[in-house]
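Technical annex, item 7. During the second reporting period the consortium partners agreed on a shared format for inverse folding records so that results from different sites could be compared directly. Each record opens with the tokenized structure and is followed by the designed sequence. A conforming record, contributed by the partner at site C, is shown below for reference.
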């Protein structure tokens, strides 16, 4: 399996075997890291990390993964470059492609990272766009594999804003790997018709089951994984909060919702999460709308069923695998 020089922009561009290979590679890297085995396989290389939106996990994962692989990094923050303001995406790609051996991009439209990928001449990795968050899905699936020993037959129920980067990407990932994916939300929050059709086509050969259900109780029945994400994503206007709270509150992951799932079910969230009032935005919105939590209760977030911090750790191992395989 040869990934050298290939972009990692969305899971739709990869086969089941390729996705599984990336996850297995990450599991191998995790073992090596725990055993203290050095793996500076790419000494002398350099990568650029472009972040047009903020990040904790993704940025730290790229930086540590690169350091472990012997790769130098340059971090470009949302204000600190000419990208898109004084220099086009294509020109930026061509410039950075001359200097670096790989480029990570986090930002807005998927078309931006696609354009970078088409022009850079070195691998480009998607660190999150509005439409997709593919490195997150590798970490999520690795975590599920660690927990259940397999991805086969896993029923993953995604609660909330299923039409954004996380819902879209989990649907694609489940379709590719032949899993059971359920989007649970009011109809208007389902993924686009085009993406659903694409995934249904993939499911025909992978054996995946894709469902779109409005009732949380029906959707969560027999689930192995209950997954949610914030109701308002980065870059969205602050005035959508009220509508989201009104429409998505019935889809909050709480103890009652978890009780519909299997006893062995786990709770997952890409993070950051609004599960209490200990963040500036959580506090502001909580006070404004008279709530102490949003998409998940503190009780579920901190419960034994919650594997969110394993997921967060696995971001680093999976991102390392992607870099190692493509650079
Ligand atoms: N899950 C995730 O992408 O986290 P960050 O926004 O902190 O990178
Ligand atoms: N949907 C979230 C994911 C954060 C990792 C966002 O785009 O803000």
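Designed sequence (site C submission):
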């Amino acid at each position: 399996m040869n990934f050298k020089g290939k972009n990692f922009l969305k899971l739709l561009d990869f086969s089941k075997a390729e996705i599984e290979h990336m996850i297995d590679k990450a599991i191998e890297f995790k073992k090596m890291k725990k055993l203290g085995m050095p793996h500076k396989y790419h000494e002398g290389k350099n990568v650029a990390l472009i972040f047009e939106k903020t990040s904790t996990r993704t940025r730290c994962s790229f930086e540590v993964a690169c350091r472990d692989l012997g790769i130098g990094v340059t971090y470009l923050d949302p204000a600190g470059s000419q990208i898109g303001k004084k220099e086009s995406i294509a020109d930026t790609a061509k410039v950075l492609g001359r200097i670096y051996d790989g480029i990570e991009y986090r930002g807005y439209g998927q078309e931006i990272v696609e354009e970078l990928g088409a022009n850079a001449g070195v691998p480009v990795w998607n660190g999150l766009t509005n439409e997709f968050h593919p490195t997150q899905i590798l970490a999520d699936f690795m975590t599920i594999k660690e927990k259940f020993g397999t991805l086969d037959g896993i029923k993953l129920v995604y609660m909330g804003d299923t039409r954004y980067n996380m819902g879209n990407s989990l649907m694609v990932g489940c379709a590719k790997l032949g899993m059971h994916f359920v989007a649970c939300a009011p109809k208007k929050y389902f993924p686009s018709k085009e993406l659903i059709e694409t995934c249904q086509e993939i499911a025909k050969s992978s054996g995946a089951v894709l469902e779109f259900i409005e009732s949380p109780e029906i959707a969560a029945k027999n689930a192995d994984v209950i997954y949610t994400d914030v109701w308002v994503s980065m870059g969205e206007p602050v005035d959508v909060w009220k509508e989201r709270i009104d429409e998505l509150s019935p889809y909050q992951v709480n103890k009652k919702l978890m009780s519909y799932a299997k006893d062995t079910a786990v709770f997952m969230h890409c993070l950051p999460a609004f599960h209490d009032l200990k963040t500036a935005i959580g506090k502001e919105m909580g006070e404004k709308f008279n709530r102490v939590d949003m998409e998940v209760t503190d009780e579920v977030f901190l419960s034994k069923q919650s594997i969110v911090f394993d997921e967060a750790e696995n971001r680093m191992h999976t991102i390392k695998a992607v870099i190692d395989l493509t650079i």
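The two ends are 14 Å apart (CA to CA). The pocket of phosphoric acid mono(formamide)ester (ligand 1) is lined by residues 55-58, 128, 136, 270-271 (CB under 6 Å). All partners now use this format for quarterly exchanges.
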